[in-house]
Amino acid sequence: MSARRGVLSYLVPLILSAFFFGVLVLLNYYARELHAYRDVLLVLFGKDDGRLHFLALVALIVFVVRVVEAFTFDVVLSRRRDAPQLLRQIVAIVLYMVLFAGALKLVFDYDIKAALTGGAVLAAVIGLALQDTLGNLFSGIALHMEGAFDVGDVVHSGDYIGVVESVSWRAARMRGFNNQIIVLPNSVIARERLEVFPRGQLNARVLQLGIDYNVPPATVIGIVSQAAAHVEGVARELPCFARVASFADSSVIYEVKYHTRDYAQLQRIDSDIRKAIWYALHRNKIAFATPVRSFQTYTPPDVGHNVPAEEVLARLREADILSPLSEEARQTIAAATRVHFYSKGETILRHGAAGDSMFVVHAGTAAVRLPDDSDQGWHEVAQLGPGTVFGEMALLTGETRTADVVALSDVTALEIGKDSLQPVLSDHPDLVEAITAKVLHRKGHLDAIRSGEPEEEEMSVVSRVRAWFGL
């Protein structure tokens, strides 16, 4: 099929040229008889049959260029290395340009030189429009003159690697290792860093593998080198050897270096070498390295914020509000007490906030502040030290907080919630009056500070406490 196409590429332009010249001869021979149709002939073939003459010359030029190209590269230079396709195309383009310019001059008396000289602006526009095409052309010429690569070589350009199948004036066509077609313009190849692995020459390749630290390197190097050397595709001219490359976290990293004349088969060769090494190591009971990890139990540091249960119970014994309770009841509450830590300046309670618990200062100092109309918006009414209680009305009745409590230093506070006091009052309802009396004594003192008129509403408060705890 390819031979038939080659013959037709010569015969078709030759036949067309002979046909057009034959028509010219007939028109000249029957010029008198066709005189009546001169207007039709003028439209079809132009003045003096110029169009027909030009078509005949075009077909003849195509035939001549192809004959010259075949004679030059397939006959004269056949004993030398095959000429690159790019050189053949450039020679053909130059011949076409010269012969077409001669045909235009001969038939239409059209001077190409004058047209190019007088049309500088047009030439500039055409040059800009064809800058990519011209860039590919001249890049291809430069690559050919340097002899950078040839058909059959493996080329690595940028992100692409493959076997060169053909090189034209515009681009290089490569076959990727996944059997995909890669077409790289010559200008792109000229800009990128180019790695060439010539066909038929020795090209080196390095593989890495990790082996257990307990195996002597001399043993591994001998086994690995021998296994890789007998793989098909590995060149015999240069020895295949292994070496210690580095020490990793869990393995010794070895490099296996081999040479091959068929770099296009590197994926298959690499696979066969890895397979041969696996079997060789397996026969010698040598294992590949696996990650080794050392685990250590983490023990969090003691930050010094823990309050022993004995200290919590001792602090509750000092709280006057809880003095009516029995020792057993205090132990029950201490077991459910929550310990909190506040830094200096942090607000422990906020005025107007809802709550259902009270606090006992265990360490540090806090200030009680009431809102007012001063520049600061509040004024300090008391300072609370270790053993003092605040927020008790929220615990007993669920009412909102009546003041701000702010830490003046780092404060450790014990929080007693409604859920911890509930079982004690449920078992001993009679304690409500005693606890209420203690609370009202403190509340009366606070009210005296605020209004100077302490109010005793013991019965009302007792009712609210009973209702709040469902007694």
How are the strands ordered across the major sheet? Answer: 4-3-2-1-5
CATH class descriptor name of the largest domain? Mainly Beta
User: Care to count the β-strands?
Assistant: 16
The CATH superfamily name of the largest domain is: Jelly Rolls
In which range does the helix fraction lie?
A: 40-55%
Low-pLDDT windows of residues = 452-456
What is the average per-residue confidence, as pLDDT, rounded to a whole number?
78
What's the architecture of the largest domain, going by CATH? Sandwich
Overall radius of gyration: 51 Å
The end-to-end distance, rounded to whole angstroms, is 109 Å
- Secondary-structure-based class equals alpha+beta
Main attributes of the structure:
about 475 residues; alpha+beta; SH3 type barrels; Alpha-Beta Plaits; 4 domains; 5-stranded antiparallel beta sheet; 4-stranded antiparallel beta sheet; 16 strands; about 20% strand; elongated
Report on this model:
The structure is a single chain. This protein has 471 residues and is an alpha+beta fold. The chain has four domains: 2-118; 147-197, SH3 type barrels (Roll); 203-283, Alpha-Beta Plaits (2-Layer Sandwich), CATH 3.30.70; 309-469, Jelly Rolls, CATH 2.60.120. The protein is built from 16 helices and 16 strands. The chain has a five-stranded antiparallel sheet with strand order 4-3-2-1-5. Strands 9-16-11-14 form a four-stranded antiparallel sheet. Strands 10-15-12-13 form a four-stranded antiparallel sheet, with no helix packed on it. A hairpin with a 6-residue loop joins strand 12 and strand 13. It starts with a helix and ends with a helix.
